[in-house]
Every structure is written in structure tokens, then in C-alpha cells.
Amino acid sequence: MIRELLREDRLSFWDRLIQGERVKQSEVASIVTKLAHAAPPEERTSCILLLAAARISEEESKTMQRNLVAALRYWFSYAGTKSSSADCKNLLTESKWRDMDLLTCMGLYLSWSEAMCSVGASGDDYTALKRLKDTLRNKYSKEWQRTLVLPHHQISLTGGEINDAQRRFQCIYARCCSP
Amino acid sequence: MTHKEDFNAFMLDAVAHETAPIEYEHHPPLDVFFNSLAEELAPNAQSEFTAHVATCPQCQARWQSLNEALQSEREALSSKEQVPDFAEVARQRSEKASWTRRAHDATMALLPKREFGSIWVTAMASVTAVIIALAVTVPALWGPGAAVYESLAALTNEVETLQGQVGKLAQEVTTIPANFAPSSAPSMEDLLKLVNSVQGISDPWQRSLIIASSLSSHGVRIPEGVGWDNLSSYTVQPGDTWERISDHELSDSSLWPLLFLLNAERSLPDGTPSPGEKILLPSVTR
Asked: Which of A128, A133, A136 is nearest to A51 (CA)?
């Protein structure tokens, strides 16, 4: 149940990021505080991923922030049930495209071009996705290292196992980070 | 999977985990959906709603269908509101001009002398106008003037009488009482049929729409003073009828169909109120 509440908290942050809002890392840190002692790997992955995305939204250039919004819209559009209406994309107004939120984008199955156009960028800039993925991956690794104190070479995307001492540190760190 | 592997697949997995369905016991009511679509929810409420819908397949399907319906309505409205652009207006004017030109040309073709056609038409029109003016004014001035004046006066009186009758009718229409019950007021049989017909519909919104339109078609009007937010209860007494309860509790016997529909599940099979049963009453402010 607590895990599901955490997920709901994270979704509200994802929603803000998808809408192009800036999310501060200090805001997201409250979620790390709640990260349970024996949280499963997917939970840890999701929390760290959100921290990494928040860091991009807070620190990186405008272009990278825009690429992040496009990429999140692209990835989240494949979540949920595919929209039943074939032309639901065509029905979206210009402002709905621009200010797309989590609920609007879920199930839309956007192409990368459509995701880029929704943030007002050129639809054929496929290198933007690669650049964003590289940056996000780096941030993710750093956040993982910083939060869970694992040597860089041991980091795997799905988290992996950490020992009790590291879990304890995680909790202490989380408490210190909380606002 | 290491960080050198496909990051795209990793992200899609993470997103799938984030939005994986949760078993919810309660779902947001329909008005929250509408408020969300109208962007009228407070930020916190909107966040909670978003998180729920994102992880609840049932609410997600509902939200999608409502959103699509709203978008197509907006699309339809915007197409109706479209004002023709300048080029379109110019084209229409040009078409109209060419139509009048064609009519003019056709008239000219019928005339004997094409080179003096326009002058001839103008002269004919002027002569006709003079003849009509003389035909109206001469009899009034010199002819049987009295007869003409009399008939005009009679006509004027008739028109004034008719205007008076219309005014009286209009006044009657605007002063119809709020509890006016037309002759086609629904019978108990009608209402039982209506209740049976909506029993299979699970969507409360659709159900209430059918009931409201049916009542409207029977001329049942709900006065502004009747409120549905603060319902009170009343224990049915032996010998009570819906009309009597409506008269006593709502001070308006014509509102009995509303009482019945509100308490249909608590009434007897024939639709009459069940003695001893607690029924719900709307609030009435006078």
C-alpha cells in the first residue's frame, strides 16, 4: 500500500515534468525519504530515475530541458490503454499539444517526431533523443551512486542488490535530504 | 541489464512499472472528471486525480472517452464559429454580381432595341410608379373618400383589438405559476416504466439524463427552490400517498414524481409509498 502511495506521489512529479514544469530535486527528495528499507529494485530504479530527471529539469540547458519533456511524453505515451479513437491525435488542439499532461499523453503512442513537435521543436531531430538518453543515463548513474553509495562499475539499470549497511545509509541520507 | 544496454527499453519498462494498475476500492465521481477536463480542479486535487487515473484502467478508459468526446465537441464548435475569410467573401460577392449581371443581360435580350434597353426600362418603371401613385391618392382625395377612410378606420380598429388580445395572452404566458402542472403530467404507470427502463444502466450520469429528459417531456418543472445537496428523511405514515407527502413536506403536491423517483427503490411494487419506510426528501427553500 505504501509502495502504491509512493508511486502516486511520483506520478504527480512525472505529470509536472511532462507539462514542462521545472521540478526541484529537493522536492523529489521527500520521496526518497519514504523509500522503504527493503524496497524492491523497480521502486529504487523509479525513484532514482525521477531524481535524475528532476536534476535535468533544474540544471541543464533549455534545449536539454525541452528534450526531456519530449522524451517523457514519448515514453509515457506508450503507457496505459491505447486510445480507442484513431484520430484522437488530430482532435487535440494546439494548446493541448503544447501543454500536454500525463493523462493526455498516455495511450497516444506518439512517434518521436510528434513528441518533438509537441514541444515546438523540429520533428526530424533524432539526435536530440540520443543526447537526452546519454545525459539521463549519466545523471541516473550519478544519482544512484550518490543516494545508494555504490561504486560506479557496479551500477546496473535495474538496481541490483545492496547490503544492510548501504540500506541504513540510504535511510540516513534520505532523512538528511528531506526538506 | 547493464547501463550499456538499450536505454529506451529500460525507460519503457520503468514507465510501465510507474503506471501499472492498482486495485482501487473507490473511484472519483463523475463531476471530478468534468472538473478535471474543464481545468477547474485545485492543483493538489488534480495531482491526486492524475495519479489515480494513470493507474486505474477503468477510470483511464472513462477519462479517454470523455476527453475524446470533449475534443470532438470543441472541433465541431470551432468549425461552426469559423468566419469566412476575405477571399471567400469576395468570391461570393463576385458570384452574386455575375448573377445580377446575367439577369440584366437576359432582360436586355428580351427587349426589342438592345442599344437603348436600359433607358427604355427606366422610362417604363417611372411611368408605372406614377400610375400606381395616382391610383392610390386620387380616389382618397376626390373619389369616394369617405368609404376609403371608413374601411381604413375599421382595419385600424381591428388591428388594435388584435394587438390587445396578443398582449393579454403574452401576459398570461409570463405569469404561469412555477408549479403549473400540464395535462400530460406523468402517471404512476409512466414513472414505473421509466424506473424499469433505467435499471439496467450502470452509469449514473446517463441514468439521470434519461430521467430528466423524460420528466421534461411530461412538462414536470423542478422549481429553483428545490435542492438536492441536503436530503432529509421522512417516515411514511399509513395512508400516505406521494401527492400528500409532497404537499405536506414540500408544500407542492405537483412535485410527487420527484419524490417517487428519488425513493423508487423504497416503494411498494405498485409504486405507492411503503408505510414505516424512511424516504428521502429534497430540501425546499421558499
From this structure: A136
